[in-house]
Amino acid sequence: MKKIITTTKAPAPIGPYNQAVLSGNTLYTSGQIALDPNTGELILDSIEIETKQVMENMKEVLAAAKMTFENVVKTSIFISDMNQFADINKVYGSYFNEETAPARETVEVANLPKFVNVEISMIAIK
């Protein structure tokens, strides 16, 4: 059985999907981009600020499922420019304990929704 997870503290979906789906003890999140959930505006001042907004959005989705970054077992990071990887990784890494950090892949792609620079999705387990 699946339970739909939603929160107004993260951007609302802009298509036929949900912020996250809980199946048993496993949470599957949709990708988050740097949309301000209050204004709907993109936060693109710098790659560090953009990544921080993505991670803050994800933090709220996890919280809506009564989870934290400690529950995350897998992340997928999609970026438009691999040259920005180090800056993205620095911000991303600040949300995890390095000893218990999740598995991850980082993939450079041609384009992302709304032509942002980074999108991150996660899988977490209670």
Radius of gyration: 14 Å
CATH A-level architecture: 2-Layer Sandwich
Question: What's the CATH H-level superfamily name?
Answer: RutC-like
By CATH reckoning, the class would read Alpha Beta
CATH topology-level fold name: 60s Ribosomal Protein L30, Chain: A
User: pLDDT average, as an integer?
Assistant: 97
Report on the architecture of this protein:
The chain is of the alpha+beta class and 126 residues long. The protein has a single domain (2-125), classed as RutC-like (60s Ribosomal Protein L30, Chain: A). Helix content is 21%, strand content 27%. The protein contains two helices and six strands; from the N terminus they run βββαβαββ. It has helices spanning 47-64, 85-93; strands at 2-5, 20-23, 26-29, 72-79, 103-108, 118-125. The longest helix has 18 residues, at 47-64. The protein is globular and about 40 Å long. Belongs to the RutC family. InterPro entries: RidA, RutC-like_sf, YjgF/YER057c/UK114. This is Rid family detoxifying hydrolase. It holds the Pfam family Ribonuc_L-PSP.
SSE map:
Elements: E1 2-5, E2 20-23, E3 26-29, H1 47-64, E4 72-79, H2 85-93, E5 103-108, E6 118-125
Parallel strand pairs: 4-5
Antiparallel strand pairs: 1-2, 2-3, 3-6, 4-6
Helix pairs in contact: 1-2
In short:
This protein is of the alpha+beta class.
Task: Quickly list its features.
alpha+beta, 60s Ribosomal Protein L30, Chain: A, 6 strands, globular, six-stranded mixed beta sheet, 126 residues
